[in-house]
């Protein structure tokens, strides 16, 4: 049996990993090609840096340190990623969704409110304030948010069951679309006047 089979198929062309095929024919998963087994090394499974605080000097007062298939090629096709979340006092991550993953958040330090909104009908809001050691789950695709409700810095770890979960920031997607969504339509949709919509679009 080829020694290549002892390595995770995630790095190779699935099912036919031992075959040498043209790069142009390599199956793509989330936009990434599987790696030639001859080039696999330990670094493909390794990341260092989650112990380093992220830079929260931005308008949101928050930072994300991702460990996805982009940072660790060995995650390719394995359906897993992780991230460090840092929040300054008052810091937050705006409402967003992950179209390709469920998220589980564990707080390491501080106090973090995490909440999500269910689908229609109802749009029910579920939220909890998490302290050190607490965990909260956000189901796949639902609009959710995180915000630091403590007086000091907050640190959390988020794990997702996708190698590249994707992120859609709700406000940015609606008011910052390129090209822009028609402002008259948005005004009617959100029961706003056109001037307000245009002001919002200018911010994004």
TrEMBL record:
Positions annotated to bind oxalate: 98, 103
Binding positions (Mn(2+)): 96, 98, 103, 144
Pfam families with a match to the protein in the record: Cupin_1 (PF00190)
Keyword Calcium: no
Location(s) in or outside the cell: Secreted, Extracellular space, Apoplast
Domain spans labelled Cupin type-1: 48-198
CC terms in the record's Gene Ontology section: apoplast
Classification via InterPro entries: Cupin_1, Germin, Germin_Mn-BS, RmlC-like_jellyroll, RmlC_Cupin_sf
Keyword annotations: Apoplast, Disulfide bond, Manganese, Metal-binding, Secreted
GO MF annotation, one: manganese ion binding
SMART domains, sorted: Cupin_1 (SM00835)
Record-stated family: Belongs to the germin family.
Full protein name: Germin-like protein
Protein species of origin: Sesamum angolense
């Amino acid at each position: 049996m080829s020694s290549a089979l002892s390595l995770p198929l995630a790095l190779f062309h699935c099912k036919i990993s031992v075959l040498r095929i043209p790069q142009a024919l390599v199956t793509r998963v989330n936009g990434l090609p599987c790696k030639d087994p001859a080039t696999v090394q330990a670094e493909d499974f390794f990341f260092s840096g989650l112990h380093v605080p992220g830079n929260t000097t931005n308008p949101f007062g928050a930072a994300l340190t991702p460990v996805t298939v982009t940072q660790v090629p060995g995650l390719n096709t394995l359906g897993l990623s992780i991230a460090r979340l840092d929040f300054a006092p008052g810091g937050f991550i705006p409402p967003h969704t992950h179209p390709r993953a469920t998220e589980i958040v564990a707080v390491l330090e501080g106090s973090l409110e995490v909440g999500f909104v269910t689908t229609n009908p109802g749009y029910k809001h579920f939220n909890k304030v998490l302290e050190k050691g607490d965990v909260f789950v956000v189901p796949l695709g639902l609009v959710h948010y995180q915000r630091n409700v403590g007086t000091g810095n907050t640190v959390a770890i988020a794990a997702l069951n996708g190698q590249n979960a994707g992120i859609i920031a709700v406000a940015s997607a609606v008011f910052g679309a390129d090209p822009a969504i028609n402002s008259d339509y948005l005004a009617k949709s959100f029961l706003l006047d056109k001037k307000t919509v245009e002001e919002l679009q200018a911010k994004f």
